[in-house]
Write a structure and sequence with these properties.
Shape: globular
Radius of gyration: 20 Å
Distance between the termini: 44 Å
Largest sheet: 6 strands, parallel
Order of helices and strands: EHEHEHEHHHEHEHHEEE
Number of domains: 2
CATH superfamily of the largest domain: HUPs
CATH architecture of the largest domain: 3-Layer(aba) Sandwich
Helix content: 25-40%
CATH topology of the largest domain: Rossmann fold
Strand order of the largest sheet: 1-4-3-2-5-6
Number of strands: 9
Length: about 290
C-alpha cells in the first residue's frame, strides 16, 4: 500500500492503471469504511471483467484508492471542522492489505487557489440535512468532483448512511456524463443498531446508551408503513415528538421517495425514512429504506 500526499504523485501512480475503484472518506475509519473498501475491491474487479465480456478477466487487477481528506468547504462556520478526528496513522494501519493507494492531501493541495467555482447541487440539497447545513452539499459535490477528476475511477463506493449525499452524487454523475458506477453500500451498524459514524465518539456514555433510540424510532415508523399507515406527516410528527420528549433536539424526520428524495404520493412503494437529530452536542443521522 502506498500513502501519497500530492496530486502529482497520485496522477503518476495511477497513470498505468486500467481499472480503479475509489472510496472517498474523511478518515477516522471504522468498520463501515472498511466494508466500503472491501466492496470497492469486489465491484472494481467485476466491472472490468464485465466490460471485456469475460467475467473473470478483470479479477485481481483493480487498483483500490481510498482518499482521506477533511474537506473544509463542506463545514459551516459553527461546525466541527477543527475538532474532527484526524487519525491518519491508525487509518493506514486498518487499510493495510485492503487498499492499494491512500491519498491524504493537505488542504493546500486540494485547493491551490481559493475555490470560486463550485458544483451547484439540485434543489433537494436545500432540504433535509441541507436546510440545517446550508452550503454543505455544494461543498461535498465540489470536492467529490475534484476527487473524481484526480482518481478517474470506474467504480466509486459510498455508504447509504449518508443517503442524501449518495442521491446527490448519483445525480451529479448522471448529469455530468461521468463514466463511473456509483455503488451504495448498506449502513454498517453496532450490535444495538446505532449507525456507525466517526462522530459517535463525541457521545458520552449516557448519550451512547440513548442513541439507539434513533434507529429504533425509524424501525417503528417502518413497521407502521408496512402495516398500512399512509399519513406520512402524522408519522413524522409523532416520531419527532417522541424523540424530543427523550431530550433529543430533532431537526427532521421525513418520509421520502427512494428514487429522488421527493415527497411521496400515497401508494408509492419504494420509500425511505430519513432523520437527523442532536443528542447533547452530537448530531446523528440515520435512515431506513421501506419497500411496500
Amino acid at each position: 500500500m502506498q500513502l501519497l500526499h500530492s496530486v502529482s504523485e497520485l496522477r503518476a501512480r495511477l497513470a498505468g492503471e486500467q481499472s480503479v475503484a475509489f472510496v472517498p472518506t474523511m478518515g477516522n475509519l471504522h468498520e463501515g469504511h472498511i466494508e466500503l473498501v472491501r466492496i470497492a475491491r469486489e465491484r472494481g474487479s467485476c466491472t472490468k471483467g464485465t466490460q471485456s465480456g469475460n467475467p473473470q478477466a478483470g479479477r485481481g487487477v483493480v487498483c483500490v484508492v481510498v482518499s482521506i481528506f477533511v474537506n473544509p468547504i463542506q463545514f459551516g462556520p459553527n461546525e466541527d471542522f477543527d475538532k474532527y478526528p484526524r487519525t491518519l496513522e491508525a487509518d493506514c494501519a486498518k487499510l493495510q492489505g485492503l487498499a492499494d493507494v491512500v491519498f491524504a492531501p493537505a488542504v493546500e493541495e486540494m485547493y491551490p487557489e481559493k475555490q470560486s467555482i463550485f458544483v451547484e447541487p439540485p434543489p433537494i440539497s436545500r432540504e433535509l440535512c441541507g436546510e440545517f447545513r446550508p452550503g454543505h452539499f455544494q461543498g461535498v459535490a465540489t470536492v467529490v468532483l475534484k476527487l473524481f477528476n484526480l482518481v478517474q475511477p470506474r467504480v466509486a463506493v459510498f455508504g447509504k448512511k449518508d443517503y442524501q449525499q449518495l442521491s446527490i452524487i448519483r445525480q451529479m454523475v448522471i448529469q455530468f456524463n461521468l463514466p463511473i458506477e456509483i455503488v451504495g453500500a448498506e449502513t454498517a451498524r453496532a450490535a444495538d443498531g446505532l449507525a456507525l459514524s466517526s462522530r459517535n465518539q463525541y457521545l458520552s456514555d449516557a448519550e451512547r446508551t440513548e442513541s439507539v433510540m434513533l434507529s429504533q424510532t425509524l424501525r417503528g415508523m417502518g413497521a407502521a408503513l408496512q402495516g398500512g399507515a399512509a399519513e406520512y406527516a402524522a408519522l413524522e410528527r409523532g416520531a419527532g415528538a417522541a424523540l424530543a420528549r427523550r431530550g433529543w433536539q430533532v431537526e427532521y424526520v421525513s418520509v421520502r421517495r427512494q428514487a429522488d428524495l421527493g415527497v411521496p404520493e400515497k401508494g408509492e412503494r419504494k420509500l425511505v425514512i430519513l432523520a437527523a437529530a442532536r443528542l447533547g452536542k452530537t448530531r446523528l443521522i440515520d435512515n431506513l429504506e421501506v419497500c411496500l
